[in-house]
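Page header: ASSEMBLY MODEL / two components / 618 residues total.
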Amino acid sequence: MAVATSVRAAGTRRTGIDSRYRRGIGRWLVLAVAVLVGLVILAPFGIMLLNAVKSPQEYSANGPLSLPSSIYLDGVLAFWERTEFPVKLWNSVFISAVVAVLGALLSLLNAYAIGIGRVKGRLWIVTLFLLANMLPQEALIYPLFTMAQSVGLSNSQWSVIIIFTVIQSAFGTYLLASVLGTFPPALLEAAALDGASRWRILWQVVFPIMRPTLSVLMIFFFIWTWNEFFIPLVMLTTNDTQTIPIALASLQGDRMMDAPTINAGTLVSLVPAVVFFLIFQRTLTRGVTAGAVK
Amino acid sequence: MADSTSILTARRSRAERRPRAPRRGRPAWVGYLPYLLPGAVAFAVVIGYPLLTNVYFSLFKWRGGMAPLRWNGLGNYADLLGDDQFWTSFGNSVAMIVAMVLVPTAIGLLLAAVLFDYLGRRFGERVSSVLRATYYLPQILPVAVAGVLWNWILNSQTGALNEILRGLGIDTPPNWLGDPATALPSVMLVLIWIQVGYPVVIFMAALQRVDPELYEAAELDGAGWWHRFRAITVPQIRPETFVVTLTCTVAALKVFAPIYVLTRGGPESSTLVPSYYSYLSFFDKSQVGYGAAIATVLTLVIVVVAVIILGLQSRAERREREGI
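Prediction written out in full:
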């Protein structure tokens, strides 16, 4: 049935907007609803932007929806100084970047053995990695906390880096192993004929071809680690080691936090994520798609 | 299979060239085991050992640190069964699943189909991709940052929402996060706001691989939009729906950061979730054994739920194959 009708429809294949659809009022109604949903989602961002640069007096006088009469930057400054923002920014960048690199490396090594080496029991290994990715971090945190203390890594960023390298590579191994499972065997054969060792095949044949996938994976690892909350909250206990989300959340209970400071803090905290997203948007949407189909 | 034979031949040909032949009878994959070693060690240290140790801790009464561990057998688990807060926390997990899985998936499916198949055709790709990016925006910021923003918006005294309501003449607007009656629904709305962009992006990507001729054929047969949505869109992107359901359900059961920054499980435990309850037991109440027991139960629940969803998925796939 489907075949017959699709043959009938083949002649009307269209590209772009079809003039058939350029009529009726209904489409404007649907567009209005879709835009309205978008506005509801944007509203909190808009309110935040308005009030990040508005003085507390003006906020109590004119409310949250008024346009600020002048740009008030004390909130941004207060947040910047109170949290020592450059330190937090560096901590977040450092931890996320190291995890992205190490996590991708570990994923590649694992996936090389599983996808190309086809080691025995690989299905079980992949299942184990997938399960590890689903575990609640609460089921690991107390032992990890005591282990970090006993090896002198308490309140150290390296404890967080090690933990997230493993957690992220659990997903990375799963993804890369399934990609490497379809690696063209002719390339491997040719390299082996030239006498290349496994180690050289990995770096001179497999790695260059996998580079795009690895870069998507690294972007994911970076963002995921950047956004992590629970493990950094427990493991990083002092101001000089904490990441941006923890710094923002720990200011929350502070009675001195007025509306502009909170909003400025939120604004400053989400700028790096948005900038990063805009830079890598194309790579990322491709990656999201790949992740979904796998 | 083709790959492993090619590796075998590759090995043999290399052996011809090199003076030192590999040991006879050893399968090719053994040579790759060293590459698994770093991962295996790291995995054992960071996940395997802590997971088992946590189960071990759950069998003791322990105040943490230097305090002595006192054997309690399954006592902590028995206590859990009679603990109202424990049951409340898992009851709230159901609410989290509604807010993070059911509602976003349903809305996301509808929005993705409308953007892809209706607005995209009538107003062009640009309109639909701008709208998609808008819906996805809450997903890219750290969830703790989103929570802090919403915590302020919903604050009863100085929050934006109540300022607006007071401006509209409502003298005593609700204390959104401070009232046990409104706290859970408020948290759920925030979670829906955070979550809804994820299914939209995944489903729109999924729709790209659906043959457009299916739609055209149905259209020529006189099927309306809603009919096409139900007969083509929903069944065609079922694999992605399973992926979204699985990942979001696991995330909903694990949810921690939004609760931490929005309500800290309060008021009166009305928004308590298992992960936050175990965190409280570990680091606030110094009941490490009890916290470990909660975390162990949560782990089991997640694994069981994941296995059920994966089972449903493979059954649906099997049925589909048999149907064709």
